[in-house]
Design brief:
Blueprint: E1 9-11, H1 14-18, E2 23-29, E3 32-39, E4 42-50, E5 64-69, H2 71-77
Antiparallel strand pairs: 1-5, 2-3, 2-5, 3-4
Length: 98
């Protein structure tokens, strides 16, 4: 098991790298970025693409760069890490009284 101490690591297998870890991670590969949430008992709970895809010419199969997102950064950027895109609305985005 890899230990992430707020330092990025590289891996060809994100699920294996996050096994037994909890938190939100920025995962980058060949110009594509995603926020990945992991929890105890599950290596990957959610995988949400972020930003625009930047086409990067690569040769072969580059590894993923995995960077832990600190709780302070999550609060600053209001990252929920729950996936699904419903934010704080819950219940499929319905407002109360609908």
């Amino acid at each position: 098991m890899l230990q992430l101490l707020n330092e990025p690591i590289t891996s060809y297998d994100v699920a294996e790298a996050l096994k037994n870890l909890e938190g939100v991670f920025l995962v980058e590969r060949a110009g594509q970025k995603s926020l990945v949430t992991s929890a105890a008992g599950h290596s990957i709970v959610s995988w949400v693409p972020v930003g625009e895809v930047t086409q990067v010419t690569t040769t072969g199969n580059p590894p993923y760069t995995i960077t832990p997102i600190t709780q302070q950064m999550q609060a600053a950027f209001k990252i929920i890490g729950q996936g699904g895109g419903q934010g704080d609305q819950g219940q499929g985005g319905r407002r109360s009284g609908d």
